[in-house]
C-alpha cells in the first residue's frame, strides 16, 4: 500500500509522465491521493495516462515556448492549486563525442533538461508556491558527477540540473523545498540500449544485483515530495542499486561503459 505522506488532495505535475520513471512517479502520487497532471509530446499517450490516473494531461514538449505557462494555468484552473512539481522529462541526445555535437542538438538538450525545469519552477512559484509552499523534485542521473563515453551532452545538462536544484533550494526556502533523485540504470525506453543487450551482465555490475525498476525511483520521488521529507532540501537522493560504490564490491563498470561506447551516433 502506498503511504499518503500528507499528499492526499494535493496537486502534482509530472513532466514526461506517460511512461518509464515519470509514469511510475505519477502512479505513486495518485495512489497517495494527489491529483496528477502529466505531460509528454505524444498526445495519445498523454490522454491514456491521464485517464488511467484519473487526472489530467497536457501534450507538448517542455521546451515549447509557452508550454510551462500553459501547464501551470491548466493545473491551477482544474485543481485550484499546485503543490508538487516533478521535473522528469529529459533527452539523452546528442550522443557522441562533444567535438561532433551539433549546435542545435546541444541547445535542445539544455532547453529540455535545464531551461524547462527552471521555467516550470518559475511558473509554479509565481502561480502558487510562493504564497502556499510546495515541493519540487528534479530527476537527474547517477552519471551527473562523473564522465562517460558519448554521453557528454547529457551528463553536462544533468550536472547543471543538479546545481540548479541546490541553487533553487537555497533561494526558495523556507516556502518551497527543492531536491533531486539520481537514478542508476533503470528498465525504461531511454536506457533500453544499455540494459537490453544482456541484462544479467549489467545486473552483475551492480552491488544490489539487479537493474532498477521505475517504481524504485518513484518511491524516492514520492518521499521527497511528501511531508515526510519536510526538513530536507537541496539534497540529491541516489537510487542506483549501489553503482557509486561498486568498486568496493569488485565490479568496475566495464560492461556498461562498453555498451555506451557501442551506441551509434545519431
Ligand atoms: N532510465 C534510466 O536508466 C535513467 C537513468 C538516470 C536518469 N534517468 C532520468 O529519468 C528521467 C525519465 O527517464 P526514463 O528513463 O523514464 O525515460 P523514458 O522511458 O524514455 O520516458 C521519458 C518520458 O518523457 C517524455 N518526454 C521526452 N521528451 C520530452 C519533452 N521534450 N517534453 C515533454 N515530455 C518529454 C516521454 O514522452 P514523449 O516521448 O511522448 O514526449 C516519456 O513520457 C529522465 O530525466 C532521465 O534522464 C533515467
UniProtKB/TrEMBL annotation:
Matching entries from InterPro entries are given as: NAD(P)-bd_dom_sf (IPR036291), SDR_fam (IPR002347)
Q: Which UniProt keywords apply?
A: Oxidoreductase
One Gene Ontology MF term: oxidoreductase activity
Indicate yes or no for the key word Oxidoreductase: yes
Using the record for this protein, list the coiled-coil segments as residue ranges, or answer none. none
Pfam families for this protein: adh_short_C2 (PF13561)
Report the domain of life of the source organism: Bacteria
Q: Gene3D superfamilies of this UniProt entry?
A: NAD(P)-binding Rossmann-like Domain
Q: Would I find Oxidoreductase among this entry's keywords?
A: yes
Give the family per the record. Belongs to the short-chain dehydrogenases/reductases (SDR) family.
Supply the name of the protein: 3-ketoacyl-ACP reductase
Q: What is the lineage of its organism?
A: Bacteria, Bacillati, Actinomycetota, Actinomycetes, Kitasatosporales
Amino acid at each position: 500500500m502506498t503511504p499518503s505522506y500528507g499528499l492526499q488532495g494535493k496537486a502534482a505535475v509530472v513532466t514526461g509522465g506517460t511512461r518509464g520513471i515519470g509514469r511510475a512517479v505519477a502512479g505513486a502520487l495518485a495512489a497517495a491521493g494527489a491529483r496528477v497532471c502529466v505531460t509528454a509530446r505524444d498526445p495519445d499517450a498523454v490522454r491514456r495516462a491521464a485517464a488511467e490516473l484519473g487526472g489530467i494531461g497536457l501534450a507538448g514538449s517542455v521546451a515549447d515556448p509557452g508550454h510551462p505557462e500553459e501547464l501551470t494555468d491548466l493545473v491551477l484552473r482544474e485543481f485550484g492549486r499546485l503543490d508538487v512539481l516533478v521535473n522528469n522529462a529529459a533527452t539523452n541526445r546528442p550522443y557522441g563525442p562533444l567535438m561532433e555535437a551539433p549546435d542545435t542538438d546541444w541547445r535542445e538538450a539544455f532547453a529540455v533538461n535545464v531551461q524547462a525545469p527552471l521555467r516550470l519552477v518559475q511558473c509554479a512559484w509565481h502561480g502558487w508556491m510562493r504564497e502556499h509552499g510546495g515541493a519540487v523534485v528534479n530527476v537527474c542521473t547517477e552519471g551527473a558527477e562523473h564522465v562517460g563515453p558519448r554521453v557528454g551532452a547529457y551528463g553536462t545538462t544533468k550536472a547543471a540540473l543538479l546545481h540548479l536544484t541546490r541553487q533553487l533550494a537555497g533561494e526558495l526556502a523556507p516556502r518551497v523545498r527543492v531536491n533531486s533523485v539520481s537514478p542508476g540504470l533503470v528498465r525504461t525506453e531511454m536506457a533500453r540500449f544499455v540494459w537490453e543487450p544482456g541484462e544479467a551482465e549489467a545486473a552483475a555490475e551492480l552491488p544490489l544485483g539487479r537493474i532498477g525498476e521505475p517504481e524504485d525511483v518513484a518511491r524516492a520521488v514520492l518521499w521527497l515530495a511528501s511531508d515526510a521529507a519536510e526538513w530536507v532540501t537541496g539534497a540529491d537522493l541516489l537510487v542506483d542499486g549501489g553503482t557509486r560504490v561498486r568498486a568496493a564490491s569488485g565490479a568496475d563498470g566495464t560492461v556498461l561503459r562498453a555498451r555506451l561506447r557501442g551506441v551509434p551516433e545519431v
